[in-house]
Amino acid sequence: MGALGAGIAALGAGLGIGLIGSKSTESIARQPEAAADIRSAMILTAAFVEGAALFAIIVGLLDKLL
């Protein structure tokens, strides 16, 4: 079950980062003057998603080992 949980966490992170990228690109297209603010918020949010996914993957793999 640990490997399944790790895979689901990786899949969720990939989908989340894809949505972040698509919505930020759409936002920049609508308001090009706010591109710097949108880009910095996008990078920060993607880093949070990656951190949460890494934590979930580690927990899932630890469940497999222990």
TrEMBL record:
Superkingdom of origin organism: Bacteria
Transmembrane residue ranges: 40-62
Keyword terms, alphabetized: ATP synthesis, Cell membrane, CF(0), Hydrogen ion transport, Ion transport, Lipid-binding, Membrane, Transmembrane, Transmembrane helix, Transport
GO molecular function, one term: lipid binding
Localization, UniProt: Cell membrane; Membrane
InterPro entries in the record: ATP_synth_csu_bac/chlpt, ATP_synth_F0_csu, ATP_synth_F0_csu_DDCD_BS, ATP_synth_F0_csu_sf, ATPase_proteolipid_c-like_dom, F/V-ATP_Csub_sf
Residues carrying the site annotation Reversibly protonated during proton transport: E50
Membrane-protein topology: Multi-pass membrane protein
Pfam family for this entry, one: ATP-synt_C
A single cellular component GO annotation: plasma membrane
Domain (V-ATPase proteolipid subunit C-like): residue spans on this chain: 3-62
Role description: Key component of the F(0) channel; it plays a direct role in translocation across the membrane. A homomeric c-ring of between 10-14 subunits forms the central stalk rotor element with the F(1) delta and epsilon subunits.
Family affiliation: Belongs to the ATPase C chain family.
Name this protein carries in UniProt: ATP synthase subunit c
Protein species of origin: Neolewinella marina
Gene: atpE
